[in-house]
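Q: Predict the bound structure with histidyl-adenosine monophosphate.
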Amino acid sequence: MINIPKGTKDVLPKDAYKWHFIENAAREIAEVYNLKEIRTPVFEHTELFLRGVGDTTDIVNKEMYTFKDKGDRSITLKPEGTAGAARSFIENGMSSGVLPAKMYYIIPAFRYERPQAGRLREFHQFGIEVYGSQSADTDAEVIFAASSFLDKLGVKNVKLNINSIGCKTCRAEYNAALKAYLEPDLDKMCPTCRERYEKNPLRILDCKEEGCKKITAKAPRMIDYLCDGCRQHFEQVKSYLAAGGLEYTVDSGIVRGLDYYTKTVFEFVSEEIGAQGTVCGGGRYDGLIQELGGSHTPAVGFAAGIERLILLMENTGIPFPEEPKPDVYFAGMDEDSRRTAFSLALKARAAGIAAEVDHMSRSVKAQFKYADKIGARYVAAIGSSELEKGSVNLKRMSDGFTQEVKFEDINSYILSGK
Ligand code: HAM
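A: Predicted complex:
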């Protein structure tokens, strides 16, 4: 037998309703926030992620699914959705269209990580991106969209943490201060941190090595080095969050795992799903479009991990509304009645009624049992006398109430909701 690859999961038909619930909630949120769907390829040129996500991130350094295609091009399965959306924004000239350009996606993403609860190698994200606005209300709107999405799912006890990691100008000043602080201990830090020290010192704060964490515990924080513009922007974001009544904590330790962020960064975190508690993360990234060859375009967005949300809902006992059951089951007693059952089911389906028939040559008794098992609302048993009369006894399964209904009236009877 060939097994599923490590770090991936099947969604079985019996569980698909959970995904539909989350995806429907995502689409409903997208609609009320006026976000339109964007679909980009599952794979892109590797270069996009090197430049977009950043070559000092774990994602680019260790986790990408990269391969050469038959034309000898370096291709990567997307590890996240932002870079592809940004590429498409530029390539399709969206900056000269209506701004802000507000979009969302529901995508698979691929990262070669060590699998554990809530951490997979193929996972799925609901993400949104807004291009063209630099104002703080847009950061706040994106955060509210994430929060409304979590509310719609019914998840509770998820904390919002926010931070600002500044712009190019104040980051340079901060990097210098951080480097000066770390310099005496540099030789005790891990090789990755030593490399980051040269290329992107802020990223050192994201290191998970205990030794490095100790050294950086009291290191200067970006939030204390914000320039006037960034400080004002952050104050405005907070004032909009407060205006909408959203509680948050400023966590100066958030740097995020991707290099493109500027100014606002945020995470929604749960303590109910173990070490991988971040269910949603995002922020502003005003430099990415230009970095990828477009004109300067401010942007902000987030992505939420669908598997983590399902885990959170399961762990905290939040029910998933089940999908509708079949409306009617037509049971045929012999070959002729089975053919009639089959065609009545076709007519019902054409009228938008969910109908089922027997495919396993079961006895009538076993068919009733099966109809009950699949939760059919009505069952119609058809035998020779029903064929003669041209009508069925339609049994309402919830209370056993039975009504004789002509073949041609079955659909309207069921649709009337009796
Ligand atoms: P991210 O924080 O890397 O951000 O991922 C967003 C979410 O995806 C995480 O909070 C988590 O729920 C989920 N996730 C990440 N990695 C895994 C994994 N290995 N297994 C399961 N779930 C995972 C981004 O991807 C950014 N593109 C978000 C963004 C959009 N920022 C601006 N716009």
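A: The first strand starts at residue 36 and ends at 37.
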